[in-house]
Amino acid sequence: LAKALYNSICDRFECACFLFNVRKISDQEEGLVRLQQTLLSKLLGEGEIKVRSVEEGISMIKEKLSKKRALIVLDDVDKIEQLKALAGECDWFTGECDWFSYETRIVITTRDKYLLAAHEVEKIYETKLLSDPESLELFCWNAFKMTRPKANYEDLSNQAIHYAQ
């Protein structure tokens, strides 16, 4: 859903960046630094930008992106430290943020809505669960590259979608 939104509106912004798997990458050594480097490189349209520490990355983001009208998607965030390192500590209610232009939009995907509340995110959209037939179709597209399960895989496919909800 976030990728579809990103693809449909990214051309309305001066620059755009979709950071996939924030949780997984930030858990790796120097992961937050690598995410900051990717963010800066993509939004500035330059080659690889070197960042030596999270603090340096914060400083560079503030300095280089404060005037940019950007679209940023932070996918699968699970810690407040990730938001502080990549999106700053903005007052989302008033829109006051010294990191980015007021026209910048940051989309955060997470499984933890309390994380969004702790970061004072202004608008929260909670996705609805897929119905069983929708879940089965999505599963089959990814598992079998078709809309229905392969023969002899119907029960196993249904067990998988019920287990994953």
Label this structure with key terms.
single chain, 165 residues, mainly alpha, Rossmann fold, 2 domains, 3-stranded parallel β-sheet, 3 strands, elongated, P-loop_NTPase
CATH architecture of the largest domain: 3-Layer(aba) Sandwich
General form: elongated
> What is the N-to-C succession of helices and strands?
HEHHHEHEHHH
C-alpha-based Rg, rounded: 19 Å
What would you give as the CATH superfamily of the largest domain?
P-loop containing nucleotide triphosphate hydrolases
Structure summary, number of beta strands: 3
Strand order of the largest sheet: 1-2-3
| Poorly predicted spans | none
Number of domains: 2
CATH topology of the largest domain: Rossmann fold
Helix content: 40-55%
Brief digest:
This protein has 165 residues and is mainly alpha-helical.
Overall description:
- The protein is mainly alpha-helical.
- It has 2 domains: 1-119, P-loop containing nucleotide triphosphate hydrolases (Rossmann fold), CATH 3.40.50; 132-164, no CATH class.
- The protein is 46% helix and 8% strand.
- It has helices spanning 2-9, 22-26, 31-44, 54-65, 80-86, 113-118, 132-144, 154-164, and strands spanning 15-19, 70-74, 105-108.
- It has a 3-stranded parallel sheet, sandwiched between helices.
- Helix 3 runs parallel beside helix 4 (54-65) and helix 7 (132-144) crosses helix 8 (154-164).
- The model has no long low-confidence stretch (mean pLDDT 91).
